[in-house]
Amino acid sequence: MLINILKPNFSFEDTRGSLKQLVREGYSQFNVIRSASGSLRGGHYHNYNSEAFYIIYGMFELEVWEEGGEAKEVYLFTTGDMFEIPPHIVHSFYFKAETLLVSMYSKGVELENGSKDIIACEAGNIPSETVRLPEKILEIDSDNDCPNCISEIYAGSKKKLHPVKKLNIKLENEGRFKITYRADFKDAAYAKCFILNGKKIRLKIEAIVCTNEKESCAVDSKLIKYNDADLIDDGFYNIKSLNPSFEFELPVASVKEVTVTGQWFVECGLSEIKSAYDYILGTNEGYSYSQRDEYIKELKKQLHKKDNEIKTVKKYQEKIQIYNEVLEKDLKEKDDIIKELEHKIKVISDTKTDTGLTNRLFRPWEHELKLIEAENRILVKENEQMKADIAECRQEIDRIGSNIMECRQENDRIEAGLREANLSQLNRIFNEFKDNTGSLFHEKHEMILEDRKHINDIKARIESDVKWIETIREEIYKEIYDESLKRQKFEEEIKELLDEMKGNV
């Protein structure tokens, strides 16, 4: 290889966003370069500088060759890629989408004699009408520490799907891919795959192979359903949303592994991003912000209902646990009494008193021992029943928790779509179009005002929800207080019962 493939010095990502530290040392000059789609740049080399690049967004082909040499190498780079070009390596760029990248020089191009370390050379021969795919296939079958996006597969029936496998995908190559989902699909007959969440792509599935313990079977390509997509050239589908997905029937039972191979192209141009946002905003399918808000509100109601059910079950479980602890304490006391009686019987049996005296001493204790053993057996049965009730309650909690997780996952998916349509990104798109035409800027300005109105409405609804939550919290506090009074009364009843049992003993 004539160039060096690099990675950022440090990466961090959480729910708030991400941070990338490109380099720590070794470079002294930094440039930010924006290139329009279809443009050519470069066609030069450096005598003294190594030049590193990091792609913020976009896609381009890089053609490199040694100064004075004939053998050339072609690479396809996209968002998140990082590489370094050593000195005396001629480099030429062809940009396939609008691209923003960072360039870093090891020394700086301005030399002490006033000249620049940029030596023009013959331009490259990258054709503008073709896209070259790399020979290497990107293979993904496990989680990655520094993902660019998430890939998920769901399975079950057409009416009800459940999550099966989630992979963190780091896009180190562009074009061909092979993704393997290793999981237990159980009795599922239908599957849906979200292949690159949060990306605008063109997609072509070449093969889907499902494998169980006995055989492997391929899915008929005619039965693969691309969601939110239009068929374009060479079998590629243009995915209109930012959550590209496809569905298919599982050809065999008890699937343990699903392997998907194909080609994708991540699209980062302004026109592609705008079409995706228009689709999110509902210009294609009629999903407006207000409709999404209503759906999210309904999901929150369902979550609140499930939370209340869990709280009720937990309270019942706590009561059962308290009663169980009382029974266990009573059992322990009875066991201590039995041990004491057994000790006394042993002492009597070890003494050399006559049989008649031993029988007279043992007889009352024997009767009391039998009564305590009978009570002990009853308490053991009650304790076992209480444990069974607790186990049943825990199963019910797990079932309700599973339903809540499904609701939350759906909620997260919708909120992720909303986050993609944030105001700052829309403003950037509108400002780019404002330079081209005044009329379009006016339209986008009106859209921004409408969006701000929607945002204010959302803030108002959030404030209303906060007030409602505070009301619920006060009710919960009152309920807890009432339950504490009931618990205190229950403890007093148990104490009276214990005192009565001690009197009987």
Shape descriptor: elongated
Q: Give the CA-CA distance, first to last residue.
A: 91 Å
Estimated helix fraction: 40-55%
> How many structural domains can be distinguished in the coordinates?
3
Summing up helix and strand content along with how strands pair, one would put the structural category as alpha+beta
Short description:
The chain is α+β, with helices and mostly antiparallel strands.
Could you walk me through the main structural features you see in this protein, from its secondary elements to its overall organization?
This protein is α+β, with helices and mostly antiparallel strands and 505 residues long. The chain has three domains: 4-120, Jelly Rolls (Sandwich); 138-272, no CATH class; 292-504, no CATH class. Helix content is 43%, strand content 28%. The protein contains five helices and 22 strands. Strands 1, 4, 5, 6, 7, 8, 9 and 10 form an eight-stranded antiparallel sheet that branches. Strands 11, 14, 16, 17, 19, 20 and 22 form a seven-stranded mixed sheet that branches. A hairpin with a 5-residue loop joins strand 6 and strand 7 (72-78). It starts with a strand and ends with a helix.
Set down the secondary structure blueprint.
Elements: E1 4-6, E2 10-14, E3 17-21, E4 29-35, E5 40-45, E6 51-66, E7 72-78, E8 82-85, E9 89-105, E10 119-120, E11 138-140, E12 149-156, E13 161-169, E14 175-182, E15 190-194, E16 201-211, E17 216-218, E18 225-227, E19 229-231, E20 237-239, E21 245-249, E22 257-266, H1 270-281, H2 289-350, H3 355-420, H4 423-434, H5 438-504
Parallel strand pairs: 11-14
Antiparallel strand pairs: 1-8, 2-3, 4-9, 5-9, 5-10, 6-7, 6-8, 6-9, 12-13, 12-15, 14-22, 15-21, 16-17, 16-20, 16-22, 18-21, 19-20
Helix pairs in contact: 2-3, 2-5, 4-5
